[in-house]
Amino acid sequence: MFLRGEIRLWEHFSIEKLQQETALSPNNIITNMPSRALSAATSSIFNLTSLLQSLPSATPSQAFTKCSACLFSTTANLEAKRTKKRKVRKHVDPYRLAQARQRKSANLARQKVLEEERKLALGDPVRSRPTPFVESLRARAPVEAIKESYLNYLLKKEDVEKSLEYSKWLTEPLPETDPVPGAQDDLKERIEKHVSGHENASKALLAIASLENASTRDRTRINVQRCIEEFGRHRTDGVLPPKLQSKQSPGTSTTDAGAGTTEVPKRIGADTGSPEVQIAILTAKINVLADNLHKKDKNNKRGLRLMVHRRQKLMAYLRRQDRGGPRWQNIVEKLGLSDAMWKEEISL
């Protein structure tokens, strides 16, 4: 099948060939042409015109194809462009569109409220909830409750009392072995003076070692000692029940009466490395640092971030090992720990 462009090109070439044969100008082709040639030319033009009218229009796929006989490319037909189907725009009801937008805004507002409620339920990932033990660990907490049991400079009250008694015995005046005849014996006065001097020295020593004159670093050191004594397993092993063991674990039998429990070996010295002790120590340091942190203090902020993430790992480990048992419940209740401290990602 010929395209319209090819047929028109062939018709143009046939007319030029006819002009060359008759050697006439283009204006005189019809007038000077013989009757026989004129009839042939008119018949050929008539046949080409009828052929062009009978040809179908070019499809869009054939509009930009190349002819096999020549190097000329065809163009798209205008009629084919006009007959293309136009996209019909659907009718949108503005009332329904406004309702959809209103529902979307209401859903987004509700999601925001629920997210805030979830964050409040999880708690603060840094600071603990206020409990009696946590409040006593703060830097500005009153020391009346603990100053009788703890002293500064790592001193113990029993050791200080023993040292004072020993110093009093060493400095106590003794009667003379070789008294001078006729001299006045002033032993009683010297003893009374020694007693008053020893009392003044004891008061001064206790005032120096008292927690009322301690710095923040000294208070932190005392808090570490209190955490070890409160949560150390050398003390909690006799108070809290042991963790339940699986019946399928090796070394246990289902026929024994105490198959679900195992004997805990006795500890020598204070427990300073168990996860609950480390969590308590980190909590005491984190609370003090968070209360005194400045906005532009980047160095201490980095230290706070490291301690918070370290506590998160220890809490996840204790939760996994203890399975929410008595040790986990004890440390959560006394330290006021929340789920946000170990469940989700913490970003400061």
TrEMBL record:
<keyword id="KW-0687">Ribonucleoprotein</keyword>
<feature type="compositionally biased region" description="Low complexity">
    <location>
        <begin position="251"/>
        <end position="262"/>
    </location>
</feature>
<dbReference type="InterPro" id="IPR005290">
    <property type="entry name" value="Ribosomal_uS15_bac-type"/>
</dbReference>
<protein>
    <recommendedName>
        <fullName>Ribosomal protein S15</fullName>
    </recommendedName>
</protein>
<feature type="region of interest" description="Disordered">
    <location>
        <begin position="236"/>
        <end position="270"/>
    </location>
</feature>
<dbReference type="InterPro" id="IPR009068">
    <property type="entry name" value="uS15_NS1_RNA-bd_sf"/>
</dbReference>
<keyword id="KW-0689">Ribosomal protein</keyword>
<dbReference type="InterPro" id="IPR000589">
    <property type="entry name" value="Ribosomal_uS15"/>
</dbReference>
<comment type="similarity">
    <text>Belongs to the universal ribosomal protein uS15 family.</text>
</comment>
<dbReference type="Pfam" id="PF00312">
    <property type="entry name" value="Ribosomal_S15"/>
</dbReference>
